[in-house]
């Protein structure tokens, strides 16, 4: 019984450790740019790396796998989040240009320079929003079929655009709060970090599986032992019966 108690404790500990790794698994980061999204569970997220796993949702939004991959490559889209039957959609676009490298980060510039860059990018139709340490240009747009908002920033030398379709202001705010910007020093080691996380998660899952199997077999073994003891006990009682 003591061994089973130890195994139950280990199982609970491993499951507790897995919780933060599950949160990491919901983060979609373009490692070469150090930019990503941490979207709520209601979103199905398609990235350049997982189109093979999302054929059904890709077809539901009117694309084939090939056409969506071409669209994402042509428009510098790394991730597309789809929610509620595609009534809401989030797109993350990333590109590094000579201009964005020169600017480095909008947050390092004065208001006049930020405005001048905004006019250069959008003309006269834009607003400026400060979200934490990140400065965004806000550009609303509408067509006959849909409307949305572009949130554009330059940070760590990367031109990043978060496009929100069909989202109200509260939902847009939630998305902006969960945009991920990795520090420059961490971008180069991001890939190895991701591999390390995958290895750790795999080992933890293996440990959980072993613990569960051990507990199951222990209970089965105890049940068989108790059953055999009952049979022997019953047999002894029968042998001692007085006629």
Per DSSP, the total helix count is 8
Uncertain segments are: 18-25, 187-194, 235-243
User: Mind describing the biggest β-sheet?
Assistant: 7 strands, antiparallel
- Given the C-alpha coordinates, what overall shape results? elongated
Strand share of the residues?
Answer: 25-35%
- Secondary-structure element string: HEEEHHEEHHEEEEHEHH
How far is the N terminus from the C terminus?
Answer: 40 Å
Per DSSP E runs of 2 or more residues, the count of β-strands stands at 10
Q: Give the strand order, joined by hyphens, for the main sheet.
A: 3-4-5-9-8-7-6
In angstroms, what is the radius of gyration? Answer: 28 Å
Helical fraction: 40-55%
Alpha-beta content class: alpha+beta
Query: Mean pLDDT, nearest integer?
Result: 80
Describe the structure.
- With 243 residues, the protein is of the alpha+beta class.
- 50% of the residues lie in helices and 25% in strands.
- It contains 8 helices and 10 strands.
- The strands form 2 sheets. Strands 3-4-5-9-8-7-6 form a 7-stranded antiparallel sheet, with helices on both faces. Strands 1-2-10 form a 3-stranded antiparallel sheet.
- β6 and β7 form a beta hairpin.
- α1 packs antiparallel against α8.
- It is elongated.
- The C terminus is likely disordered.
Secondary structure topology:
Elements: H1 2-25, E1 27-30, E2 35-38, E3 44-47, H2 55-60, H3 65-74, E4 77-83, E5 88-95, H4 98-103, H5 111-122, E6 127-131, E7 134-142, E8 147-155, E9 158-165, H6 169-177, E10 179-181, H7 184-187, H8 190-239
Antiparallel strand pairs: 1-2, 2-10, 3-4, 4-5, 5-9, 6-7, 7-8, 8-9
Helix pairs in contact: 1-8
């Amino acid at each position: 019984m003591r061994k089973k108690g130890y195994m139950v404790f280990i199982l609970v500990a491993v499951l507790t450790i897995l919780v933060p790794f599950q949160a990491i698994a919901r983060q979609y980061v373009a490692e070469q740019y150090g930019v990503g999204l941490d979207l709520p569970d209601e979103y199905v997220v398609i990235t350049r790396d997982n189109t093979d796993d999302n054929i059904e949702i890709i077809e539901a939004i009117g694309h084939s796998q090939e056409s969506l991959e071409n669209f994402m490559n042509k428009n510098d889209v790394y991730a597309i989040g789809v929610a509620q039957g595609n009534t809401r959609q989030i797109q993350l676009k990333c590109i590094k240009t000579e201009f964005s490298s020169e600017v480095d980060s909008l947050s390092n510039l004065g208001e006049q320079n930020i405005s001048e860059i905004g006019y250069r990018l959008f003309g006269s139709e834009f607003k400026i929003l400060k979200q934490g340490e990140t400065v965004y240009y806000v550009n609303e747009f509408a067509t006959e079929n849909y409307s949305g908002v572009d949130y554009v920033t330059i940070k760590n030398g990367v031109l990043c655009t978060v496009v929100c379709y069909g989202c109200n202001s509260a939902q847009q705010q939630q998305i902006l709060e969960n945009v991920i910007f990795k520090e420059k020093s961490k971008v180069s080691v991001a890939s190895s970090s991701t591999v390390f996380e995958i290895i750790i998660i795999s080992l933890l899952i293996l440990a959980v599986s072993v613990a569960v199997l051990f507990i199951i077999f222990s209970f089965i073994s105890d049940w068989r032992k108790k059953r055999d003891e009952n049979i022997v006990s019953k047999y002894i009682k029968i042998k001692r019966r007085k006629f």
